[in-house]
């Protein structure tokens, strides 16, 4: 029994790394989603082209391939990254590309009248975006952002393959030391599922909170 | 570090073998996902709560946990209970199960999108269950599912490198072993990325076409 508590500690340590990666990856993904999503809607061709290239590039390959590329090839180009940095970078950029399409779709689904009303009120482009378009569009983005966050959380498992000691890595360690497979792997599966549930319910809560006062703006 | 074409040609045959396995895994995984997803969708619609609830929970559980861990689970657990599977087979079962939970949702949405009136009309025309599905529901439900299904199969194709973790010698694993053997990472890793881009970027065009042709669910 004593022995199991030690192994449990390993898994808990790994869970911390997984949570950290998820949170930092989500932060980077959120920033990238807005930068690239707004870039795709830009007036300037160059910005649109860069944003499109970024989105297609990162959606075209999996997190796993991008992670290995970031970890093994970037150092050769003079950008040495720790496994943790490579993990956050690959996860954030990958999921950010998916998020960018969500941002673009949500902003484009805001009806024309809202834009016309802004013109009538003589708001500038930035004011229009900040006070009228984004508050409405953000609520539309949230459900899909929630799914993207869960995909990112699931994606963190691949960092174990570049020897970052996340939950999956620690489960492998426990398996190697005890010879038991079912116990460590079932434990982490349940923990991953718990994280997914927490993510989706907190996004739902946020959605309820932010859609207050928006009744009637959506048809 | 310089790009070395000579090295590229040296490792190309190995990568070619990997590509074949990658394509195989995608096709078999797709077939499994389509069939398994149908079972999940039907069982989840069951009026018996002792069937629909556990299946619903299982689907949510599989969707909420990483494919990599599920692959490890299949690969290490099955031999413990006496089922010895070749890595590729364990891999495609994992892929098929994981994406089956996604296709199940597509089937569900597609079936729910058929208006109630169609069911009622089928009943009024005195069609039995088989005729209702065969001649009324499926012809209307399936076409709008096509874009979403295709989307998940492209996603599955991109996830096949994960099979490398359970020793399947697909493209990523061939590239990794070449990289470790010659201690050159630039070319193998870049070629893997280029290969996936070359397939998945044009598939975006195909997906747009499917969406235009069949409309969109969800």
List the helices and strands and how they pair.
The complex is a heterodimer of chains A (219) and B (218).
Chain A (H helix, E strand, L loop, with lengths): L1 H39 L4 H16 L2 H11 L9 H26 L3 H9 L4 H31 L11 H12 L3 H29 L9
Chain B lengths: L4 H41 L3 H15 L3 H14 L6 H26 L3 H9 L4 H31 L11 H12 L3 H29 L4
Helix pairs in contact in B: 1-2, 1-4, 1-7, 2-4, 3-4, 4-6, 5-6, 6-8, 7-8
Question: Short description, anyone?
Answer:
The complex is a heterodimer of chains A (219) and B (218). Chain A has 219 residues and is mainly alpha-helical. Chain A has helices at residues 2-40, 45-60, 63-73, 83-108, 112-120, 125-155, 167-178, 182-210.
Describe the protein's architecture and organization:
The complex is a heterodimer of chains A (219) and B (218). In chain A, helix 1 (2-40) packs antiparallel against helix 2. Chain A has one domain: Orthogonal Bundle (MetI-like fold). Chain A is 79% helix and 0% strand. The longest helix of chain A has 39 residues, at 2-40. Chain A is built from 8 helices and no strands. With 219 residues, chain A is mainly alpha-helical. Chain B has 218 residues and is mainly alpha-helical. Chain B has one domain: MetI-like fold (Orthogonal Bundle). Helices cover 81% and strands 0% of the residues of chain B. Chain B has helices at residues 5-45, 49-63, 67-80, 87-112, 116-124, 129-159, 171-182, 186-214. In chain B, helix 6 (129-159) runs antiparallel to helix 8 and helix 7 runs antiparallel to helix 8. Chain B starts with a helix and ends with a helix. Chain A binds chain B through residues 56-57, 59-62, 64-66, 68-69, 72-73, 76-77, 150, 154-158, 160-161, 168, 171-172, 175, 181-182, 185-186, 188-189, 192-193, 196-197, and chain B through 1, 60-61, 63-70, 72-73, 76-77, 80, 158-159, 161-162, 165, 172, 176, 179, 185-186, 189-190, 192-193, 196-197, 200-201, 204. Chain B: It comes from Oceanibacterium hippocampi. Chain B: Keywords: Amino-acid transport, Cell membrane, Membrane, Transmembrane, Transmembrane helix, Transport. Chain B: Residues 19-207 form the ABC transmembrane type-1 domain.
């Amino acid at each position: 029994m004593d022995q199991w508590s030690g192994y449990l500690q390993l898994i808990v340590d790994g869970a911390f790394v997984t949570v950290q990666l998820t949170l930092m990856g989500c932060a980077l993904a959120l920033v990238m989603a807005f930068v690239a999503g707004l870039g795709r809607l830009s007036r300037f061709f160059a910005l649109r082209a860069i944003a499109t290239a970024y989105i297609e590039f990162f959606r075209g390959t999996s997190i796993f391939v991008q992670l290995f590329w970031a970890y093994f090839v970037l150092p050769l180009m003079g950008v040495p990254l720790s496994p943790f940095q490579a993990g956050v970078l690959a996860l954030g950029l990958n999921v950010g590309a998916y998020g960018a399409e969500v941002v673009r779709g949500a902003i484009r689904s805001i009806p024309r009248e809202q834009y016309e009303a802004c013109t009538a009120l003589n708001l500038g482009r930035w004011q229009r975006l900040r006070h009228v378009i984004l508050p409405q569009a953000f609520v539309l983005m949230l459900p899909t952002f929630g799914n993207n966050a869960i995909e990112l959380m699931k994606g963190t498992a691949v960092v174990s393959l570049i020897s970052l000691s996340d939950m999956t890595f620690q489960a492998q360690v426990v398996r190697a030391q005890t010879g038991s497979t079912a116990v460590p792997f079932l434990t982490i599966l349940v923990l991953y599922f718990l994280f997914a549930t927490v993510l989706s319910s907190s996004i739902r809560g946020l959605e309820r909170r932010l859609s207050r006062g928006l009744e009637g703006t959506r048809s | 570090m310089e790009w070395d074409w000579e090295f590229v040609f040296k490792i190309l045959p190995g990568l070619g073998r990997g590509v074949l396995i990658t394509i195989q895994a995608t096709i078999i995984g797709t077939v499994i996902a389509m069939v398994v997803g149908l079972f999940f969708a039907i069982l989840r619609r069951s009026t018996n709560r002792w069937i629909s609830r556990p299946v619903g929970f299982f689907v949510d559980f599989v969707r909420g946990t990483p494919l990599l861990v599920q692959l490890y689970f299949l690969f290490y657990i099955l031999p413990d209970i006496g089922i010895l599977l070749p890595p590729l087979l364990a891999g495609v079962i994992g892929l098929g199960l994981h994406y089956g939970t996604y296709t199940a949702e597509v089937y569900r949405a597609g079936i729910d999108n058929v208006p109630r009136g169609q069911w009622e009309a089928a009943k009024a025309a005195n069609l039995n269950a088989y005729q209702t599905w065969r001649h009324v529901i499926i012809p209307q439900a399936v076409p709008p599912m096509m874009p979403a299904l295709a989307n998940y199969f492209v996603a599955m194709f991109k996830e096949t490198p994960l099979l490398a973790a359970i020793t399947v010698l697909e493209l990523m694993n061939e590239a990794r072993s070449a990289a470790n053997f010659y201690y050159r990472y630039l070319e193998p890793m870049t070629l893997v990325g280029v290969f996936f881009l070359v397939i998945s970027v044009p598939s975006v065009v195909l997906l747009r076409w499917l969406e235009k042709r069949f409309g969109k669910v969800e």
